[in-house]
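User: Just a sanity check before I run the rest of the batch. Below are the structure tokens for the first item. I only need the designed sequence back.
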């Protein structure tokens, strides 16, 4: 009991202070509906009603994220030094870090309000996957992002049913709806807390280190807890599906991929790898084909049942692959390269704008991603199916037309549970640190325009703060930049 208390005091309290500051800052620069009683609160009015108040709120966000990142890095450095908290201690630490954010306004995205209005649309008898929320009166006052006003909803029937239930219960209180929808995201986080260490242990990977990297990661707090993204539920279901597959319950694993698909269709990428688990290592081609067909059957029966039960969401596939691509984000390598080429071709008069170049480069990236996924499926070699799924989803994210910060969390748990080398772990930590800077800079926007920074001073301050907390201590520098010690040379994440 004493070691658990010591771990909570050393790691839980500092991170909890960080998220508490983040929650206070969210009152000033987080997302709120235009019509909510919370705006009449004196503290909220103080933080939102003047430039000085907004500056103070942004300062709380900067400081809170810096403290949270530092707490996470210190915990990781302790793991390097074999000062190992137990898994129950990590669960308590995650609970402490999450608690201040549960009732705070969403930050880093306002998608959760769009979820609510989509539920209202479904409640009104329309299919959100075929039309935008702009047809619902009061959608803007409810906090939905105008960017998606005319866009169909890219979510499946399970999440549509959750949206409708919340809209029915909470209407007309959009803020209450946002908090309830955050609860669905928290379910996904709980699934990660429970099943990431189980799946890591199956792969011979240190469950404590895997949980630190994939669950206590600041990006999880920022985008799954504060931002309340439904990706959390999809990712949690996929981790459980792979755990079931690893325990020779592949039919249930494939069925659960069907449930995850009915949250967000991108989950279908995992299905062939459940089939590979089913076939087993070294399986022949006939054995693989049989396993893939059985997995597909379980998946289709589950997904079809969910679509019929909700009787909506039939346009989800076209919406899922069409709606996000309307965003131009510098975070996506293919879009960034396309925009640079487009600016050059426009400057020399070859094209009227950058759209043709962006389209061509995005298409090349998407084709490359599909080829990579096909190779991972058809040539598994000695790679574990979970690692194959991580690489496939990673390829889809990196080479896809759009990257949002929370998309990185689609693959991170699967990488963590299937084992990372020391260098791979360092890359994951550095990416987490970089996207924490991104969160600071874009702390009250949709975080989709990293290079479109209007306030350069904000960016410089964010980089300076993160560099200070990440590199000030020799232990954190070793975690981020140091060479592996002898006991880590064969893969730091492995036991």
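Assistant: Here's the designed sequence for the first item:
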């Amino acid at each position: 009991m004493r070691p658990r208390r010591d771990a909570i005091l050393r790691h839980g309290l500092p991170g909890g202070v960080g998220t508490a500051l983040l929650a206070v800052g969210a009152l000033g620069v987080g997302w709120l509906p235009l019509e909510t009683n919370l705006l009449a609160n004196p503290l909220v009015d103080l933080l939102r009603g003047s430039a000085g108040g907004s500056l103070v709120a942004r300062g709380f966000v900067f400081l809170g994220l810096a403290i949270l990142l530092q707490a996470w890095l210190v915990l990781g450095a302790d793991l390097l030094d074999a000062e190992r908290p137990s898994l129950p201690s990590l669960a308590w630490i995650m609970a402490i870090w999450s608690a201040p954010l549960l009732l705070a306004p969403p930050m880093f995205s306002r998608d959760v309000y769009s979820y609510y209005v989509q539920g209202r649309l479904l409640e009104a008898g329309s299919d959100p996957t075929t039309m935008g929320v702009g047809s619902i009166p009061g959608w803007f006052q409810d906090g939905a992002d105008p960017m998606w006003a005319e866009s169909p909803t890219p979510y499946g029937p399970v999440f549509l049913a959750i949206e409708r239930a919340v809209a029915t219960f909470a209407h007309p209180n959009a803020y209450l709806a946002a908090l309830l929808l955050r609860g669905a995201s928290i379910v996904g986080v709980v699934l990660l807390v429970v099943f990431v260490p189980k799946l890591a242990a199956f792969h011979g990977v240190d469950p404590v280190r895997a949980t630190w990297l994939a669950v206590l990661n600041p990006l999880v707090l920022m985008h799954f807890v504060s931002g309340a993204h439904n990706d959390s539920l999809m990712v949690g279901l996929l981790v459980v599906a792979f755990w079931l597959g690893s325990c020779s319950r592949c039919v249930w694993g494939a069925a659960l991929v069907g449930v995850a698909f009915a949250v967000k269709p991108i989950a279908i990428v995992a299905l062939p790898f459940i089939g590979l688990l089913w076939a087993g290592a070294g399986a022949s081609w006939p054995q693989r084909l049989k396993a893939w067909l059985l997995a597909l059957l379980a998946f289709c029966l589950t997904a079809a049942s969910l679509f019929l039960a909700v009787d909506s969401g039939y346009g989800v596939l076209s919406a899922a692959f069409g709606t996000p691509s309307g965003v131009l984000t510098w975070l996506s390598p293919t879009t960034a390269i396309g925009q640079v080429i487009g600016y050059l071709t426009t400057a020399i008069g070859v094209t009227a704008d950058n759209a043709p170049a962006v389209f061509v480069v995005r298409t090349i990236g998407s084709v490359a991603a599909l080829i990579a996924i096909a190779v991972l499926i058809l040539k598994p070699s000695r790679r574990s199916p979970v690692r194959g799924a991580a690489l496939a989803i990673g390829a889809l994210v990196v080479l896809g037309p759009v990257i949002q910060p929370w998309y990185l969390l689609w693959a991170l748990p699967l990488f963590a549970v299937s084992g990372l080398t020391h260098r791979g772990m360092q890359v994951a930590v550095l990416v987490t640190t970089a996207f924490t800077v991104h969160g600071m800079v874009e702390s009250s926007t949709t975080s989709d325009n990293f290079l479109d920074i209007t306030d350069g001073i904000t960016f410089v301050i964010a980089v300076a703060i993160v560099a200070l907390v990440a590199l000030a201590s020799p232990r954190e520098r070793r975690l981020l930049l140091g060479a592996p010690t002898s006991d880590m040379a064969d893969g730091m994440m492995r036991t």
